[in-house]
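Hey, I'm writing a tutorial for new members on how sequence and structure tokens pair up, and I'd like a real worked example in the thread rather than a made-up one. If someone can provide the structure for the chain below, I'll link this post from the tutorial.
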Amino acid sequence: MDERPRQSISDEKRDDAIAHVFARHDEEVPTPPEQDWTKEEEKALVKKVDWRVFPMLSIVFGLSLLDRTNISAAYIAGMAVDLQLTVGARYALFELPSNFVIRRLGAQIWLSFLITAWGLCVLGMGFVHSWETLTVCRALLGIFEAGLFPGAVYIIGSWYRQYETARRVSLFYMASLLSSGFGPTFAYALSLIRVGNGMYRSGWRWIFIIEGIATVVAGLVAPFFLVEFPERVKWLNPRQKHIASARLHADKAAKEYVHPTIRESLRMLLDWKLLVFSLQYFTMASSVYSIAFFQPIILREGMGFSYAMAQLLGSPPYIFAVFASLAMAWVSDKYRIRWAILVAQSLTGIVGLLAILYPKPPGVRYFGLFLAVYGCQSNIPATLAYGQSQTADGVVAATMISVGAAGGITGSTIFRSEDAPQYLPGIWSTIAMLILHCIMTFGLSMYLKRQNRLADEGNRPALEGVEGFRYAP
């Protein structure tokens, strides 16, 4: 008698929908091809792909992070006074999933358009005269920026195996973060610019003008340097294209990916695990934005540093976060472990925030900022890699980052000027987010490990509707 647990009707429908997406229409799911290449060939291919995928993506995402957080630098450089912003002024980010478009138009066309468009928005912010116009520019900036991060993660996921993604998503994110880590110093230098006797003597305007011009230039040259999806590239010979495709088949157990329709993607959204992945990303996005937006204000008002020192001291914590995060991402892929790394990094962020909140010496509080920035920033790429390892690449990345937009809105509002100098509500709200991330990650990972074990024992139907597939908790 078959004692295997029966699937519910809804689970069967979901698995059928997912299997349908990963199979070519009206055909059987193909058998993975036999490996007919050497380790040396694969290693050389991966190295070549690394050098083509990451440089331009990292540059434009670094500009994105600069453009996204330069408003806090402009705020303390005089924008609040010039535009008569009230205490507790808030700015919302708007996200718009664009992975449906990127697959059909191609990364070079779509991402280049987005980069140029948001660069023009940043440039326009340097010429505003009211907070209403500034808000419109910020809203448009968020809309155009929204497609970059999920699109980049989608591209990375299309080139690499399951346990190659963590360190590469982290490399992409941290290479960009390294450039934005110098953002406060760069913003301080730009804020010293004075031209004429009119509005251009306001240094905060030059933060937007110069960074906007740099982003527009990057958008115009991006089509020549951005990498496409594997089936679109022309810089691989037929043998290399075969290896690039076949090694992913072997890794994902016959998961042949074709572009899902809107209807198929909506069906895949019924998977409850996707909601958990998205909530995980929401908590981390909220934590990252809360620190990124208000770190200069914390340093200046909370710790008593001057404007210049607050800008200069903003870079070292990000530099530390880059190298520590890359090290932990390497450990995650090397030893094939996801959840323990995520929980450890969240706990580190909690310790850092407590060190910012309670000790009196500025040096101790500043050290806490190192831990807080690392604990939060490192879990952005790690959480994305965690979600990418479990189910459909494009839908997961786009959905997680879209839900993360709400985290951006939350994070940009929880540190209020009236809570200075300790910012107690903001810090404890961020701590609560990190605790929630730990609980969700541990609970879901134990569930996924159990599903893998049941599948190994033959007591569970094919995971995600694909024979041989296993989760990567």
